[in-house]
Amino acid sequence: MSGRKLLGAALGALLAGTVAAAADTIKVGIIGPFSGPFALQGKNFQAGVEAYMALNGKSVKGHDIEVIYRDLPAANPQQSRALAQELIVKDKVQYLGGVYFTPDAMAITPLLTQANTPLVIFNAATSSIMTQSPLVVRTSFTTAQTTTPLGKIAIERGIKKVITAVSDYGPGVDAEVAFKKAFEAAGGQVIESVRMPLNTNDFSPIMQRIRDSKADAVFAFLPSGPTTLGFVKAYNETGLRQAGVKFLAPGDLTQESDLPALGDGALGLLTTFHYSVAHDSPENKRFVEAAAKAIGGIDHLSFPAVGAYDGMHVIYKMIEATDGKQDAQKAVDAVKGLSWTSPRGPVSIDAETRHITENIYLREVAKDANGHLYNKEIQTFANQKDPGLAK
Amino acid sequence: MRGSATSGRFADSRLLRDVVGVAAIAVAGAAGYWLFPDNLALLTRVIAVALLVLSLDLVVGYCGVATLGHAALYGAGAYAAGMACLRGVTEPMTLILIGAVAGAAAGLVMGTIMLRAHGLAQLVLSIALVQLAHEAANKASAYTGGSDGLAGFSPSPLFGTFVFDLWGRTAYLFGLALLIGVFILLKFVVASPFGMLCRGIKEDPVRIRAMGAFVFPVLLKMFVISGAVAGAGGALAALSTQVVGLDSVSFELSANSLVMLVLGGLGSLYGALVGTVIFMGFEHVVSAINPFHWMTMVGALLIAVVLVAPGGIGGLAGRLFPTMPAKGDDRGGRS
Amino acid sequence: MRGRACKDRRIAVADRNVFMQTVFSIAIDAVAYGMALFIICIGLSLTMGLMRVVNLAHGAFAMIAGYIASFAQRELGTGYAVAILLSILGTIVVSIPIERFLYRRIYGSPELTQVLMTIGITFCVIGITNYFFGPTLKTIPLPESLSEPVDLGFRAVAGHRLFVMACGLVVAAGLWFLIEKTAFGIRLRATVDNAGMADALGVRTQVVYAVSFAIAMGLAAFGGVVGAEFLPIEPYYALRYMVTFLVVVSVGGAGSIPGALLACLVLGTIDTTGRYLMPEFGNFFFYAAVIAIVCIFPRGLLGRAQ
Predict the structure, then answer these.
(1) Is residue A286 in some structural domain?
(2) How many domains is chain A built from?
(3) What stretches in chain C show pLDDT beneath 70?
(4) Smallest Cα distance from B141 to chain A, Å
(5) Residues A331 and A194 both lie in one domain
(6) Are residues A181 and A269 in the same domain?
């Protein structure tokens, strides 16, 4: 009897040992704005992550995945670095993900090599981040990438003179430069470039400038939220739309979570972007269903969610390739050239720049059968790389 | 007034108290090192902000100048250290010195503009100045990195051997030594006749003028010293995180540091340290659990402090242990 | 030769017309923005000047009003006017216990104490609003009549802006009448000049304070709602614009209605013109102007002697 007990105990221990050995936990640290004015974007990150895990399981090759979220409410490079350091040193994460703002990403990149941890960026959209470290992969977009097709589109629609009005910060300047380059290459003329301070509330003087410049169209870029709202409102209210001045912008300005607040004033606005929630594909249907459930309503869903969704896909592939071991270079090398069908369309990770190559769509804000505003895709530019990184 | 140097026994007891105090700080610092080896980056940030709050105490607690713009001095030090490091000056102690000098210069400018006004006008000037500094840092992005922040610099190893690495050990111990050194220096400053004059100005500027002393130069001098301390804090932050962001020069940082100071108690220097540790510790723990409630808690805490403990925690301690010479400021505790 | 001179003269006249139109255009924007600021800030000017309370939580009350108005219109389906009324009443109701239990404790306290208490209140309000309403911004839908652009010939102006300007003038006139011509105004002025003496003479100063506070809150509420087009309603509103409000009041001189009006118009003009001419430097001009004015007029442009 005691012999059987002993055997039972030994077997039990052996079993427990093997089970424990197989079911190790790989931690992924996600840094994003989960509180503050950009909390909705952070929620979108979370929704994308949870949607992916709901559809693809919470483990890869026997390794359980644990996601740790850290809140970074605004662009705060010092805090970003502190959080990343904490995640690496204290929480011992194997992968870092997320990051909404460029300065936050820039602050993390110096740590990656020393920490042997790759960073998968779910949003931060400036080209130069990728050159800071060989261990960064991005699944979102760059402003240059989404803006460049607008140059040709404008010329095709008979627009010859454009005035640019962007917010005076990194992404804004990027957008202005990218548009100017593309538009002038296609034969157009940017007659004036206006840069507005980030905390501008009253856009009437800017609208006056736009009117005075006698441009055919205005190209705008502002951070999402109150400023975009104010700008689009001013565009309508000061009669610029009625005067025939067209409105061109990258899709950040008409992201789905802002459309209800913009209301009918947004109808007809032309934007170019990598993702529309209304994109018609089976992958997107599955994604939207899962993500809308995670975020608590389809009205809140927006592009950061798809960046997070595809980012998790990349992380899963990395874990698969390294079989759960912490080897940042091997992980990154494994996903170079990786291609799959994302909810946004066909995508791939460029082997040289580690940035995502994807379709960019021209969209128009329209109303669907239920009176609901959405971004209707009317033209596709396939396989766009990031012009900012092109040699 | 407190602490006239005539009573030898009293001076001795004060010296003893200060030695014990500094020893306590050193012990607490060492405890932090052993108890939280994975959190040293956070603790170093706490030390940097503690230096800012100390500098604020000099101006608010000892001189009675209400300011919401002190982050400008901190940011000046941070950016100066960052820019110098980028241009090849990588020796850590030199960088701290550069930060202190930049902070002092900024303090000189700020003080010159601010100190002639009084009350509300002074407060508004301080706010306008820090906002202007913020704008300048944003615009001069070629030098400061603008909204992207200044990054890509790294200090060389301390004394040639201790590297500023990912785990932050060097940075923390360096910061702790800096804090203790600055603290001791400041204790001398506030106990000096100059410090007495400042406190006199806080209590009754008219009488001080009647005495024949000039108020403005004295306040300006204290502002410059305060600027040096704040700048050193900024430089420490720049060194340890190797990133300088616009939030170093923000109104929010000024407001937060004022809250920390009030929490700990004005006018005692210890209060600055206590307040910083409690506030930032709280923030770290609560924000991780539920960031939405963080602001509400801080607000409630502030209201509570004003209603119940105007001298801050130091004042409370002073009232709870009345046998000890009061550490809180005159408003809350007893002298 | 003569033809060419004629043509040059016509071009010069045309240029001047365009220039005048631009100036006019900027002026309209400046006045509209300034008026919105005025309505919000006049309450703060009164609180700070008459009751000597540095009330950094003023913006928080304007924000509460904005939320109430937005909620009323979106969830309860009321019209714009009703929403304004509800928000004013709601804000005053909310402010009464806060005045009774918190503000009364800091009348006469040193500045720093008041700053801290009111910052504390602001933080609490932000946290609570964030919790109940979420972090996204809330719009206050305008009625049809106000959202139509009004054609002024050389440009269109949102009808709403003219409405705000009108409101500002009404508020200024109404307050002036209240303070200069009514019995309450006399008691108010007496309490301001010498509270102790007024009390001794039978003026119920506590009541005067409470009523003034309520009026200030009502004005903040009104301003918050009509100004929501310029200053959008979201939880950080209270902190974000607190600096602007404080600055406007100091520049104008606490307690002075013409001062507040002048400050709002001057700062509004400098801000708007700056943004038109050199948008990249927008904020420079504003804060530089503030520093200059406060240095030259430490009590504000038309401030009362303290």
Answers:
(1) yes
(2) 2
(3) 1-6, 11, 14, 153-156, 282, 303-306
(4) 9
(5) no
(6) yes
A368, A350, A194, A355: which is closest to A278 by C-alpha? A368
Query: Coil, helix or strand for C102?
Result: helix
Structure tokens at C144: 């049809």
User: Which pLDDT band, with edges at 50, 70 and 90, does B332 fall under?
Assistant: very low
- Enter the tokens of residue C62: 């304007």
Same domain, A246 and A289: no
Task: Please count the residue pairs, one from chain A and one from chain C, whose beta carbons lie less than 8 angstroms apart.
Answer: 100
pLDDT of residue B232: 96
Identify the weakest region by mean pLDDT among A33-37, A60-64, A155-159: A33-37
**Does some domain include residue A255?**
yes
Residue of A nearest to B139 (CA): A168
Which residues, other chains included, contact C127 with Cβ-Cβ below 8 Å and sequence gap of 6+?
Answer: B292, B293, B294, B295, B296, B297, B299
Q: Is residue A105 located within the same domain as residue A132? A: yes
Give residue for tokens 């404080």: C246
A134 and A35 in a single domain? The answer is: yes
B298 with C120: Cβ contact below 8 A:
yes
Give CA–CA dist A372/A383, Å, rounded.
Answer: 30
Residue with the larger pLDDT of the pair C243 and A293? A293
CATH code, A377: 3.40.50.2300
Min mean pLDDT across A22-36, A96-110, A298-312 is at A22-36
Between CA C306 and CA C130 the distance in angstroms is 38
Report d(CA A332, CA C35) in Å as an integer: 57
> What Rg value do the Cα atoms of chain B yield, rounded?
19
Q: Is residue A7 part of a domain?
A: no
Q: What are phi and psi of B2, to 5 degrees?
A: -75, 160
Of A39, A195, A239, the CB nearest to C279: A195
Is residue B241 in some structural domain?
A: yes
Q: Is residue B255 part of a domain?
A: no
- Is A10 contained in some domain? no
C99: number of Cβ within 10 Å? 20
Q: Nearest CA of chain C to the CA of B28: how many Å?
A: 29
Q: Please check whether residues A248 and A367 belong to one and the same domain.
A: yes
Q: Counting Cβ atoms within 10 Å, is residue B302 exposed (0-12), middle (13-18) or buried (19+)?
A: buried
- Domain locations along chain C: 33-135+144-235
How many other β-carbons are positioned within 10 Å of the β-carbon of residue C88? Answer: 21
Q: What is the DSSP pairing of strand A217-221 with strand A161-167?
A: parallel
The whole-angstrom separation of Cα C220 and Cα C132 is 21
A355 pairs with which residues across the strands?
A138
Q: How many Å separate Cα C241 from the centre of its chain?
A: 10
Q: Is C3 exposed, middle or buried, given 0-12, 13-18 or 19+ CB atoms closer than 10 A?
A: exposed
Burial B259-271 (b: 16+ CB within 10 A, else e): bbbbbbbbbbbbb
Q: How many angstroms separate the CA atoms of C86 and A232, rounded?
A: 29
Residues recorded for chain A: 391
Task: Tell me how far CA of residue A131 lies from CA of A106, A134, A136, A390, B107, in angstroms.
Answer: 10, 7, 8, 12, 38
In DSSP notation, B93-126 reads: HHHHHHHHHHHHHHHHHHHHHHTTS-HHHHHHHH
Are residue A371 and residue A259 in the same domain, yes or no? yes
Q: Count the alpha carbons within 13 Å of B229 in the hemisphere toward its beta carbon.
A: 30
Range of the domain at B200: 8-249
- pLDDT tier, B334 (very low <50, low <70, confident <90, very high otherwise): very low
Kindly state whether residues A130 and A152 are assigned to the same domain. Answer: no
The domain containing residue A330 runs over which residues? 23-141+280-354
Q: Could you tell me the sign of the dihedral formed by the alpha carbons of C65, C84, C29, A255, in that order?
A: positive
**Do residue B148 and residue A170 have CB atoms under 8 angstroms apart?**
yes
Binary contact (B128, C131; C-beta < 8 A)? no
Compute the distance between CA of residue B113 and CA of residue B210 in angstroms, rounded to an integer: 24
